[in-house]
Amino acid sequence: MAKRIFITGMWHETNTFAHGRTGLDDFQAYQYGEGDEMFALFADTNTEVGGAMTAAMELDLNLIPGLFAGAVPSGLVTAEAFQALVARTLELLEGAGEIDGVLVHLHGACVAEGTTETDARFLAAIRSKLPPGTPMVATFDLHANLSEGLIAQADALVGYDTYPHNDMGARGAEAAQILHRMLWSTRRPAKILRKLPFAPPPQVQGTGSEPAAGIMAKMLDMETWGGIWSASIAWGFPYADVAHLGVGVLVQGDDHGHATRIADDLAMTIWRQRGDFDAGLVKVEDAVRSAMAAPEGPIILVDVADNAGGGAPGDGTTILAELIDQSARKAVIVLCDGAAVRAAKALGVGAVFSGNVGGKSDDLHGPPMPLVGEIIFQEAVRYQRRGDYMTGQWIDLGEVAVIQADGVSVMLTEAKAMPFDADHLAAAGIAAEMQQIIVVKSAIAWQAHFQTFAKGEIYVDTPGVCASNLKRFEYTKLDRAIYPIDDDGIWPAK
Ligand SMILES: [Zn+2]
């Protein structure tokens, strides 16, 4: 008889500095499936559930679906949403009958109102309903903020090894294989977690480039050593005010001492290189000045802090204010501002717009900016992506207006424009290649398209919920110094 494995998941990367809350409707709007719907959602996809489904067939495991709930990165999860997800998961678990093992897919940086150990609580709730000795394996994102509390709840845990995350399926399969080993014996691995007082911003965590690439290669080699079940490095999600913030090295193996030595070695390797994880940020005045002085454009000014795809509003005005101040020429910036677009629509093309733009969604991304200029474009914009990323997807920007304020073109949109390519600019009559300066509100995703023609890029030190300069945030729950939030931390810890 095939062993019966309950599979379920809750996935959210919570920006505790972002305004607004994440409710059950946000999970339902992004990724939500119960029972067979969950399988339909992920069959043949490069995701944890998809990978586990494929592995389960090979291993002859009978997967019993619970639910999978995922929401895009955003503010705190409401207490009601978290309680509802736990309650529904336990209901499905109870209805599943006798279970031989459990697979749980987590993010590892979820924070709900009232508890910073949200992922651990999710596992604990499931654990409380299982007969003693039932093996449970969990997966987590490379951006997880691992904690001892979380590690204690599962018999083994497996994290993504790549950023951008393209090994989600492989890790789901690995989790199923590790669980399979545990089904036939009472042997469990020793789990050694080393937490470093170090929290690099996502912008420098890419595993395709140094210093992360070399460290991950060393870890993957150690993972093949005898007696080691699995090793992971979770680089952490720094936009979370939680005590367990920061890089976590997790090594699981037969022998406690052996796993400990490997975890310490990896942790020390990372610690020694902490200074190499440098975001290379430039002050906004200097960034605009050098972009204007560059012999050839376009120069990309990267506004990571207002990353429209990372939970930020996409209406930050810090760089716009500087462009106007320094009388920039051939510069373009896109702001999400429905009210300003509607005001421009009422005036019509050719009229002079005079009013505040941007900075309206919160007080973290610069104030609303007074702007005067001619309305040179006004239409509803809907287009299909042609670039490599999300090709073919329809993008609806709602009503769009372009205000020409001397040399600066300000494109106002009702919906957030994610700058994965320049199609959104072209749709409003703006030729990206002809610009001297293009502001993008993105961390990494802009590169694939804009780097094909840009003559340079500058990462700008702007304020916002996704800022790479972590000194801009006020952390209240850290119980030790953490680099680079503080100028140094102390390692090894006592
Ligand atoms: Zn991630």
Mean pLDDT: 94
Instruction: Describe the main β-sheet briefly.
Output: 8 strands, mixed
Rg: 24 Å
Rough outline: globular
The helix-and-strand class reads: alpha/beta
Number of strands: 17
Per DSSP, the total helix count is 14
Bound compounds, each kind once, are: zinc ion
| C-alpha termini separation | 49 Å
Q: What strand order characterises the main sheet?
A: 12-13-14-15-11-16-10-17
| Helical amount | 25-40%
Strand content: 15-25%
The stretches of 5 or more residues where confidence is low (pLDDT under 50) are: none
What is the total number of structural domains? Answer: 2
Sum this structure up briefly.
The protein is of the alpha/beta class. It has two domains: 3-276, no CATH class; 284-384 and 392-468, no CATH class. It has 14 helices and 17 strands.
Walk me through this protein's architecture.
By secondary structure, the protein is an alpha/beta fold. It has two domains: 274 residues, no CATH class; 178 residues, no CATH class. Helices cover 28% and strands 23% of the residues. It is built from 14 helices and 17 strands. The strands form three sheets. Strands 12-13-14-15-11-16-10-17 form an eight-stranded mixed β-sheet. The chain has a six-stranded mixed β-sheet with strand order 2-3-1-4-5-6, with helices on both faces. Helix 4 packs parallel to helix 5. The longest helix is centred in the N-terminal third of the chain and has 17 residues. It starts with a strand and ends in a 35-residue tail after the last strand. The model has no long low-confidence stretch (mean pLDDT 94). Zinc ion (ZN) binds next to loops.
